[in-house]
Each structure stands twice: as structure tokens, then as C-alpha cells.
Amino acid sequence: MAATSVRAVLVIGLTGGIGSGKSTVAGLLAGHGAQVIDVDAVGREVIASGGRAEAAVLDAFGSSIADADGHIDRASLAQAVFGNPEALARLTAISHPAINEVLVERIDALPVDSVVVLDMAILVESHLGKAMPRHAYTKVIVVEAPDELRIARAVARGMQADDVRRRIASQATDAERRAVADAVVRNDSDLTDLEAAVASLWTTIETWR
Ligand code: ATP
């Protein structure tokens, strides 16, 4: 009788600093068959109109962060938590569990042998994708690129260099990300090289299943 193997969903956290190319890597992994979930987009969904964290965030922060229709104005909310660790902690205590609930539901809905990639800016800095009753990620992929290249990429997308530098300074360091990485993708060359690196990464991922 042929041997059978029990397949289970494999959940991977994918992260990297601003402009590192993590979303590009996520797209390439999708091309190999991964199911990619954009965790930053889920974060926007949960506080959007009708989102599961909308009411609680409005309760916690009051009408000063609401727009004319009574929904959350993201710019006002960002301003309310910027440089205010206590307010930021209050927001994440509401929004992150809501995001994790959505992630569990999305993964539950996928075929059981899926490779799921959680594309997220803040992995080291949060419990996103981790503090979950099931489907917490078990592997971490980190995308790295030199700061100057990351700044140039973000500037090419319309950001100011100083803003990018500030963002880099506020995010986890390469060393902190590396400390939790099961695999590191160095994205300091062109897209052809990145495609080759991701093809090789996919063979590594196959060994994780
Ligand atoms: P952010 O945190 O800002 O969302 P990110 O880490 O998800 O960034 P991407 O959106 O994947 O980064 O890439 C940033 C920009 O750099 C994009 O415009 C992308 O097309 C470009 N880019 C990424 N990798 C390369 C590469 N190897 N060669 C050329 N351009 C690249």
C-alpha cells in the first residue's frame, strides 16, 4: 500500500522593513502557489466602516477621530497615536485581536494543504499572526535590503526620504528580524535575481511541510 502523508496548512509570517520588497516577494510566492494574506490590509479593514473593531476604537478614542459620517478617519487616528505609546497600546489592544480573528477565519476557509503567507510589516513588533487559537505562523521569512536602496524604492513611490528614514528608525532592526527568521531573502539586486531567490526559497518551503 502506498504511504500516505497527512497534510496540514503551513502558515508562514513574511516580513521586512519599509521598501525591503516583502510584498513583491509575497507576489512571487503566490506565483508558486502560496495563499497570501495582506495583514496590513486586514488592519485597515477591521477599523473601516462596519469593520469588527470600528465601534470599540470609536468608543476608546472618541469623536475627535471620527469623520463627518461618524466613521474612523484614519489620518486623525494616526495622529492620535503618533508619538503616544499609551494611545498606540490602547489601539493595538483593540485592533490586533480583531485582525487575528479575521486571519483565523480566512485560513480556516482555505484548503487544508495550503501554504499560507502572512505578509506583514510588523511581525517582530507585535503578536499579529501569533496570538491565535490556531493557525499561528510556525515559520518566518525575512526580506532584507540595504537602507539606501529601501529609501530609494520608497521615494520612487512618492515618499519623502526623511519620512522613510524616520519610519526605518521606528521599525525593528535587521538584526531583530534576523533573530526570528527561518529564511532570509536578500533583495538587493534586480527582479530577475529576486525571482531566482524566491524559486530557491520555495524549495525550502516545500521541506517545511
Ligand atoms: P512597504 O513596507 O513600503 O509596503 P514592501 O517591503 O512591501 O514595502 P514592495 O512594495 O514589495 O516593498 O517594494 C517596494 C518597491 O520597490 C515597489 O515599487 C517594488 O516594485 C520595488 N522593488 C522591490 N524589489 C525590487 C527589485 N529587486 N528590483 C526593483 N524594484 C524592486
Helix/strand layout:
Elements lengths: L9 E7 L5 H10 L3 E4 H9 L6 H8 L12 H8 L3 H24 L6 E5 L19 E6 L2 H10 L4 H10 L3 H7 L2 E4 L4 H18 L1
Parallel strand pairs: 1-3, 1-4, 2-3, 4-5
Helix pairs in contact: 2-5, 6-7
Bound molecules: adenosine-5'-triphosphate.
Largest sheet: 5 strands, parallel
Total number of distinct structural domains: 1
Taking strands numbered 1, 2, ... along the chain, how are they ordered across the largest sheet?
2-3-1-4-5
* CATH architecture title: 3-Layer(aba) Sandwich
Q: How large is the radius of gyration?
A: 18 Å
Q: Write out the distinct hetero groups bound to the structure.
A: adenosine-5'-triphosphate
Q: Got a strand count?
A: 5
Q: Give the proportion of residues in helices.
A: 40-55%
- Average of the residue pLDDT scores: 95
CATH superfamily: P-loop containing nucleotide triphosphate hydrolases
Outline: globular
If helices are DSSP runs of H or I spanning 4 or more residues, what is the number of helices? 9
| Alpha-beta content class | alpha/beta
